[in-house]
Amino acid sequence: MVRHMVTSPAGRRLALAGLLAGLLALGSGCTTTDYVTGKPVRNLFSLDDEVQMGGQYYADMVGELGRKDAPVNQDAARVALVREITSNIVAHAHITQLPYQATFVGDPEFVNAYALPGGHIMVFEGIWNPKLGLVRTVDELAAVVAHEIAHVNCRHSTEAITRQMLPNLLLTGALVWATLEEDDDMQLLFGGLMLVHNGLIVTRYSRRDELEADRVGMMYMARAGYDPRAAPRIWQRIARASDRQTAMPLSIFSTHPRDDLRAQELGKHLPEALALYEAAPVKRNGTRPLVP
Ligand SMILES: [Zn+2]
């Protein structure tokens, strides 16, 4: 099909040149300033794009949860708690103009929380599950929510998409070229490179993003008046559970860095977070246990 569109060698070269010019334009026009670090960063998307993308994902997810009979925002007390924590924390976030919205999903087996680009925070009931439970106190729940809010502020989703797009487009271009040239070896090579890129490089970046979200989230929670010692405590608990080879059904955490490494990294930044907590004008009495 593709081969019939570009038949002559000159036509092929022209098509390839057009593709490369497009990729260069795409690559050079996307530098923006990171809201959290203040440093230049590549991101092809605006905050408005993120709000639109996140809204679409959210509508799809709620539709999917409806088909699985997982109730969305039905447990008034937990919805209120998750929303209270979210609004306390976003008051101290870097991007204040996003329409943040917290959602509680009644799925007791799913120990998880998500952030969607644009400000949707989704917390699942499994977080409360006493057997599978990740968190035991309000401070610990605040640490999870703050981590998700940090992902939104660091714009990790759209930065990751941007990072993947350019090399993927280049490799796709190379693959198209190899196909046009009917070069089987090159097709194999570029196809293989694409797999390696997506498997290794993208995962390594997302681990770095996880550590950044841990650190930034711990500062947010501390400024909002939640005791930041809760953050390393969660990861120590998970590391101990992993040592005992207890299967933790933390699906989203499978690409995360090692749990003990996270606790260690958080520990390094704890003195700074504790100073922010001491200076916070309001303390949230977050040591109270979550009602299972
Ligand atoms: Zn994360």
Question: How many structurally independent domains?
Answer: 1
Total DSSP E strands: 5
Structural class: mainly alpha
What binds here, in terms of ligands, is: zinc ion
State the end-to-end distance.
59 Å
Provide an overview of this structure.
61% of the residues lie in helices and 7% in strands. The protein is mainly alpha-helical and 292 residues long. A hairpin with a 6-residue loop joins strand 1 (31-33) and strand 2 (40-42). It has nine helices and five strands; from the N terminus they run H-H-E-E-H-H-E-E-E-H-H-H-H-H. It has one domain. The chain has helices at 2-5, 9-28, 47-67, 76-90, 138-154, 156-180, 184-223, 230-243, 259-279; strands spanning 31-33, 40-42, 101-105, 113-116, 120-124. The protein has a three-stranded mixed beta sheet with strand order 3-5-4. It has a two-stranded antiparallel ribbon with strand order 1-2. The structure holds zinc ion. Residues 147, 151, 210, 213 line the site of zinc ion.
Supply the key terms:
three-stranded mixed β-sheet; 292 residues; 61% helix; elongated; mainly alpha; 9 helices
Short description:
The protein is mainly alpha-helical and 292 residues long. It has helices at residues 2-5, 9-28, 47-67, 76-90, 138-154, 156-180, 184-223, 230-243, 259-279, and strands spanning 31-33, 40-42, 101-105, 113-116, 120-124.
Question: What layout of secondary structure does this protein have?
Answer:
Layout: H1 2-5, H2 9-28, E1 31-33, E2 40-42, H3 47-67, H4 76-90, E3 101-105, E4 113-116, E5 120-124, H5 138-154, H6 156-180, H7 184-223, H8 230-243, H9 259-279
Helix pairs in contact: 2-6, 4-5, 5-7, 5-8, 6-7, 7-9, 8-9
The site of zinc ion has 4 residues, from helix 5 and helix 7.
